[in-house]
Design goal:
By secondary structure, the protein is α/β, with parallel strands linked by helices. It is built from eight helices and six strands; from the N terminus they run H-H-H-H-H-H-E-E-H-E-E-E-E-H. The strands form two sheets. It has a four-stranded mixed β-sheet with strand order 4-2-5-6, with no helix packed on it. A two-stranded parallel ribbon has the order 1-3.
């Protein structure tokens, strides 16, 4: 089974548990905090991957980390389960899958809008409103600026890209002219 499929299974189970407890957002927050801790401390991840440390020592370290982060018992038990199953290294993929599944559950879409110049608040609100109307979901918008676009806007929602940039239009014109 692929790593992404395994991560999705763990994430799905945790989202279902969170939905039952009404704690999906809290679980998401706690998981991202733990993931950030592991990302900022590569030695911690290396410790859990090192076979020289026994499972009991790793378990105690993980319990200490959980206590310092004041994570819920459910997340603490989930992390211990990952440790015992040898899946702690898959935490970033699990968190990404969890985020996606939690968004689906709560009806949230997270599009990324890229423009050539910074947008003012009114423009961002207008784009957000249009995306909410077209998707039928709540929109958590991320706006990036890329001067290479020359003008226009590129919107990415999941795997779908809507490219209305001047750069792409110029590229299409160039291709058409070259092909005759």
């Amino acid at each position: 089974m692929s790593a992404s499929a395994i991560a999705r299974r763990y994430a799905k189970a945790l989202v279902q548990l969170g939905a039952e407890e009404g704690s999906v957002e809290r679980f998401h927050s706690e998981l991202t905090t733990v993931e950030a801790l592991f990302a900022s401390n590569p030695a911690l991840g290396a410790l859990f991957a090192n076979p020289a440390y026994g499972i009991e020592a790793k378990r105690e370290i993980l319990k200490d980390v959980n206590a310092r982060l004041t994570a819920s018992t459910t997340i603490g038990n989930f992390l211990l389960l990952l440790l015992e199953r040898g899946r702690i290294a898959a935490l970033p993929q699990i968190v990404a899958s969890f985020s996606s599944l939690a968004d689906d559950l709560s009806g949230v879409v997270r599009p990324v809008v890229t423009t050539a110049r910074p947008l003012d608040e009114a423009q961002v609100a207008e784009i957000k409103s249009a995306l909410e109307k077209n998707t039928g979901k709540k929109v958590a918008l991320t706006v990036n600026v890329d001067p290479a676009l020359i003008g226009g806007i590129v919107t990415k929602i999941g795997n779908t890209v809507f490219d209305g940039s001047v750069k792409t239009q110029l590229t299409r014109i160039e291709d058409t002219l070259q092909k005759g």
